Amino acid sequence: MSGRLVSNTPPSHVFRRFGIVLTVALLVAALASASTPVRAQDTKSVKVVATFSILADWVQNVGGENIELTTIVPAGGNAHTFDPSPEQVASIADADLIFEIGIGFESWLDDMYDASGSTAERVVVSEGVVLAAGEDSYEGEDHAPESASPEADAHADEGDEHANEGVEHGHGENDPHIWGNVTNAMSAVDVINTHLNEVDPDNAADYDANTAAYVTELEELDAYVQEATGSIPDDMRKLVTTHDTFGYYANAYDFVVVGTALNSLSTEGGDPPASEIAALVSEIQEQDVPAIFAENVSNNDLMQTIADEAGVTLAPPLYTDALGEPGSEGDTYIAMMTYNTDTIVTALGGESARRITRVS
User: Please, which pLDDT band fits residue 25 given cuts at 50, 70 and 90?
Assistant: First the structure.
């Protein structure tokens, strides 16, 4: 995570942010005057915002027809490199709830929230999850991130309500990719249900029923992932991906993360130095990794280069930080996790036991 020359000229981003704030203020005023009659006709819908597509899918499954959902970073979008437009900032101005992963994942959200003038409650859905340490907090260790302590591991499925104490917006010491472990999705869904109940108690029974039905599907998904990944030989349970997004998946389903091309929790920045690429190629060869994995939110040329140099297979891209477009094999969280698991199992020499019925 000596003397300097000081300029009296504000940096360019100050002017840019001022321009966005001014534009947003005008848009909010226009939207407020234009939308008053519509709000009067539809007072039952709760205005809900989800920061990105995976979280939006969880929220929609709980909220059902009782919410009006806005997704900030859409399917196929990259939340790590997202830069909100004034129109997107204005779209959250009159939200009732804003759901976010937190843990520094949405680095742009604080400024977006302030610029919008929104008074919506921000809900961090990872509040009940036992967090894994991010790669930057390790001292040269090259294995998959582990939970903060052995005691935390023992209670991972229980959901420690204090797991995120001290984690503030923009704080990036912990890995934010919690959705890799399906039990974390169940925890997040419970958080979503609790807050929808609080803001819209008249529809609490609907939210509770939706949550119960969805959690049942997530339990089936988790059982499938465990069963399918269990067919991979022990010496093949090794993951190499574009960036460090599979720590929770690896911990939950017994994989080792050998390395990542970008050596980061984020996809921001350019290609790594040639020395880092060479080191990863050597590690892949030394550990007899049979295949490596590209991602749907990244340019895959780098991963193809690494695969070619290491003499291994580049598997089909996995859905990582975003759902796939509607109609794709990763257009819901359940479909995404099923597809990813089947792709990993096939590439690493296992056998997919069965397919989960997709939720549309």
Answer: very low
What are the CA-CA distances from residue 147 to residues 57, 134, 330 (Å)? 26, 10, 27
227-237 pLDDT per residue, tens:
999 999 999 99
71 phi/psi in degrees, rounded to 5:
-105, 125
Q: How far is CA 128 from CA 124, 190, 196, 199, in A?
A: 9, 9, 16, 20
Q: Are 319 and 244 in contact (CB under 8 A)?
A: no
pLDDT, position 167: 34
Domain that includes residue 47, residue range: 12-217
299 lies in the same domain as 201? no
Residue count of the chain, please give it. 360
CB atoms within 10 A of CB 60: 19
Q: Find where tokens 């994995």 sit.
A: 293
d(CA 351, CA 334): 19
Q: Rank 68-72, 152-156, 265-269 by mean pLDDT and report only the highest.
A: 68-72
Residue 353 lies in a domain: no
Could you give the CA distance from residue 164 to residue 103 in angstroms, rounded to a whole number?
A: 8
Please say if the pLDDT value at position 22 is more than 70: no
CATH number, position 104: 3.40.50.1980
User: Measured on CA atoms in the order 175, 178, 181, 187, is the torsion positive or negative?
Assistant: positive
DSSP 189-209: HHHHHHHHHHH-GGGHHHHHH
Is residue 135 within 8 Å of residue 263, measured between CB atoms?
A: yes
For the entire predicted model, the pTM comes to 0.77
Structure tokens at 183: 């039990």
Q: Give residue 34's pLDDT band: very low, low, confident or very high (50, 70, 90).
A: very low
pLDDT > 50? residue 184: yes
The yes-or-no verdict on residue 3 having pLDDT over 80 is no
Q: Which of 185, 217, 249 is the last residue of a domain?
A: 217
Please report whether residue 1 resides in a domain: no
Residue 253 tokens, joined: 């389903």
